[in-house]
TrEMBL record:
It is found in: Membrane. It comes from Myripristis murdjan. The keyword Glycoprotein applies. Pfam families: Ig_2. InterPro entries: Cell_adhesion_signaling (IPR051275), Ig-like_dom (IPR007110), Ig-like_dom_sf (IPR036179), Ig-like_fold (IPR013783), Ig_sub (IPR003599), Ig_sub2 (IPR003598). Its main location: membrane. GO terms for cellular component: cell-cell junction; plasma membrane. The keyword Membrane applies. This is Ig-like domain-containing protein. It is a single-pass type I membrane protein.
């Protein structure tokens, strides 16, 4: 089922179901062609969010993937899996990407470099403050 007439560049969604046990793997092919139609993650996932944050702030990045069935999103930093960061520190600066995975495979996003800005304020007296850039360790 589905709309069989679309304009070039538009998405085409076709649905096929089979009542079988064990479940069937459905493969789409173009008639009179050896070419398989693409299933699964249709486009490379994209990352949106602010790549420059101050130390102590929350890092909020969103990974979007147009896929069917929906993809499981995994975040990676410098090649290892990572989780949500509520209060970021300078040590969490680095290169992040996401991977969208479903039954048909996986796609990796372009990388985004996160820069954590360190800003410390040193109060010398009640009336003088000096801003020091760079994290005090």
């Amino acid at each position: 089922t589905g709309n069989t007439s679309v304009k070039e560049g538009e998405a085409l969604t076709l649905t096929c179901s089979a009542d079988s046990h064990p479940p069937s793997l459905i493969t789409w092919m173009k008639l009179h062609s050896e070419e398989y139609l693409q299933n699964g993650t249709e486009t490379m996932p994209t990352i949106t969010g602010n790549a420059s944050v101050k130390e102590g702030e929350a890092l909020t990045l969103t990974c979007s993937a147009d896929s069917h069935p929906p993809s499981l999103i995994t975040w990676m930093k410098n090649g290892t899996e990572t989780w949500k960061i509520n209060s970021i520190t300078a040590s969490e600066s680095g290169t992040y990407h996401c991977v969208a995975t479903n039954n048909y495979g996986s796609q990796q996003s372009d990388a985004i470099h996160i820069e954590v800005k360190c800003e410390n304020v040193l109060h010398l007296f009640n009336f003088i403050s000096v801003t020091i850039f760079g994290c005090l360790l």
